[in-house]
Amino acid sequence: TADFFHTCSVVSDPLDFPGVPMNTFGTQTPLEGNGYGGFFAYRADNYREYLSIALSQPMLEGETYCVSFSVNLADDVGFGIQEIGAYFTTNQPNFNTSGTSLNLTPQIFNTDGVIIENDDWVTVSGIITADQAYQHLHIGNFFSNANTTGGGSFPGAPDIVDSYYFLDEVSVQLLSTELLTMNETQQVCAG
Q1: Which phi-psi region, left, alpha or beta, contains residue 172 (left: φ > 0; alpha: ψ -120 to 50)?
Q2: I need a surface site. Which of 106, 117, 177, 189 has the fewest CB within 10 A?
Q3: Vertex 190, ends 117 and 126: CA angle to 5°?
Q4: Residues 6 or more apart whose Cβ sits within 8 Å of residue 81
Q5: For the segment 128-181, what is each residue's pLDDT rounded down to a tens digit?
Q6: For the whole model, what pTM was predicted?
Q7: Which segment of 29-33, 82-86, 185-189 scores lowest on mean pLDDT?
């Protein structure tokens, strides 16, 4: 299952799960607040974890939204991937898939290459026009290993072919029509 890390965690060993900034997977301060989530986005056995949340209110069909979230590759895994994305549903699906990839096409996903940043947070963002009254958001890697662009790691990374990412600052914002008329080639929500 996905994980939650918080500064209020009191453990005897600072490298023990689930502290902030130091924890089982590395060291990272929150982008905002006192905590962040974490999930396996890739493992050699196709294992996956997803962070899911109910939206505070359903999306309005036909309306346009800016979606953004920030990720950071954990220090103690070191293998980066590209296909981190956000998938919206109208109900809470049963993700009891024994940890395997869901093979769904996320509506928002990273297109800026393999994410290997382990110091700073990387923002993934995009725009979605709701074609349904979506009520739930799910973040992770929805593709099988065969369809995942992996590779690359930061200098000094361990020799482990797993991808574990920290997740913070998830946002879904309704956009006004005025903002969308700027220019068809400009992206409105660029982080």
Answers
A1: beta
A2: 177
A3: 95
A4: 41, 42, 114, 115, 141, 148, 149, 150, 163
A5: 999 999 999 999 999 999 999 987 766 666 667 789 999 999 999 999 755 555
A6: 0.85
A7: 185-189
